[in-house]
């Protein structure tokens, strides 16, 4: 009983902690996207514009929409539309303002819809929503996220999760960056210390990255660790791999994504705008039925992916997994035979 509760706690810490700090790496991706979208505009400058005072801040609006489909049985699917709207203000490198370097905020929402009812339950629609804010100033980064999830997310405070994080960049060179910090998570994780049920728990943060001509590697330790590796990051053909712990039921909870990628435009002005990939994954999808019951699918898959930066398509076949139904303190597992899956995501920066 106690071990089960501790496992639940660490799983929740990983999911929320990693989600809360994804904007740190997303900021870099957005900068690359910004350069791609504005490449033609910055090539030629009007002489009068060159004399105009430089803007101290750049304001962007970034909408993202997505749709996922996973086959559960022969005629049963789970469909997940999603959307995110992010606002970001970034200080120009030449600015002398003392205001923060980055101020960002946004909101996201997704809904998972089962085409057939879950056996023993009436719920078929599961919601997930969050709002977040980020402030980065110099080497300091603050992040706040509030989230709700479940079939009826507003029915109980137990469906609420809140994360407040702080990180400080301690090392930054041409090849190495290291950030350390911590924060708190406010959530009903089912953890008991004697007769006391803590609702607020501390959360550590460690982030390390190494970049070179031959490989890029990173380690993120927020609750549970995750690592990623890219071989030959500047070549046309690359290998990308990532793995993380989703719990302690190994090997099924060892999530990974390994792919061979081709960037056919890498030697042109378009750079990494387009990529074609083929890979394998071990993935999980979880659904909170109510405060005591949940459903999780773990599955392996083989996929192909086409990315044009602004739009990404992935499709493949899921196989060899498990379906786990948690009812109170009991777990009921059965084989998940798998099926086809597909995802599409589109984004833009205004």
Spatial extent as radius of gyration: 22 Å
Order of helices and strands: HHHHEEEEEEEEEEEEEEEEE
Number of separate helices: 4
Major sheet, described briefly?
Answer: 16 strands, antiparallel, barrel
The count of DSSP E runs of length 2 or more, i.e. the number of strands, is 17
In spatial order, strands of the major sheet run 1-2-3-4-5-6-7-8-9-10-11-12-13-14-15-17
Structural class estimated from helices and strands: mainly beta
Distance from first to last alpha carbon:
50 Å
Q: Tell me the overall shape.
A: globular
Strand content: over 45%
Percent of residues in helices: 10-25%
The stretches of 5 or more residues where confidence is low (pLDDT under 50) are 1-50
Average pLDDT for all residues: 83
Task: Tell me what you see in this structure.
The chain is mostly beta strands. The protein has helices at residues 2-20, 22-37, 39-43, 47-51, and strands at 57-73, 76-91, 102-114, 125-137, 140-150, 160-172, 176-187, 200-211, 215-222, 224-231, 237-245, 254-262, 275-288, 293-307, 311-327, 330-336, 339-347. The protein is built from 4 helices and 17 strands. A 16-stranded antiparallel β-barrel has the order 1-2-3-4-5-6-7-8-9-10-11-12-13-14-15-17. Strand 13 and strand 14 form a beta hairpin. The relative contact order is 0.14.
């Amino acid at each position: 009983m106690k071990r089960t509760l501790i496992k639940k706690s660490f799983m929740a810490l990983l999911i929320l902690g990693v989600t809360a700090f994804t904007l740190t790496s997303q900021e870099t991706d957005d900068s690359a996207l910004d350069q791609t979208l504005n490449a033609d505009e910055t090539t030629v400058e009007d002489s009068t514009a060159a004399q105009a005072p430089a803007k101290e801040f750049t304001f962007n609006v970034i909408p993202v929409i997505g749709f996922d489909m996973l086959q559960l049985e022969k005629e049963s699917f789970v469909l997940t539309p999603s959307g995110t709207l992010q606002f970001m203000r970034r200080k120009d490198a030449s600015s002398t303002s003392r205001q923060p370097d980055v101020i960002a905020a946004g909101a996201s929402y997704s809904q998972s819809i089962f085409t057939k009812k879950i056996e023993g339950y009436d719920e078929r629609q599961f919601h997930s929503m969050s709002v977040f804010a980020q402030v980065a100033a110099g080497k300091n980064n603050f992040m706040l996220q509030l989230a709700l999830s479940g079939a009826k997310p507003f029915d109980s405070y137990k469906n609420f999760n809140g994360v407040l994080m702080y990180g400080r960049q301690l090392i930054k060179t041409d090849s190495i960056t290291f950030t350390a910090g911590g924060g708190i998570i406010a959530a009903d994780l089912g953890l008991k210390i004697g007769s006391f049920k803590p609702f607020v728990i501390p959360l550590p943060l460690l982030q390390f990255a190494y970049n070179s001509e031959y490989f890029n590697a990173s380690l993120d330790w927020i609750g549970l660790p995750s690592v990623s590796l890219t071989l030959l990051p500047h070549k046309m053909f690359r290998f990308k791999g990532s793995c993380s712990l989703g719990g302690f039921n190994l090997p099924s909870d060892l999530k990974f994504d390994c792919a061979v990628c081709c960037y056919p435009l890498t030697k042109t002005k378009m750079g990494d705008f387009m990529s074609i990939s083929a890979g394998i994954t071990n993935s999980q999808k979880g659904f909170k039925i109510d405060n005591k019951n949940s459903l999780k699918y773990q599955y392996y898959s083989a996929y192909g992916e086409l990315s044009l930066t602004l739009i990404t398509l992935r499709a493949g076949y899921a196989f060899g997994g498990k379906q786990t139904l948690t009812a109170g303190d009991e777990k009921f597992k059965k084989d998940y035979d798998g099926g086809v899956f597909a995802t599409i995501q589109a984004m833009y920066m205004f």
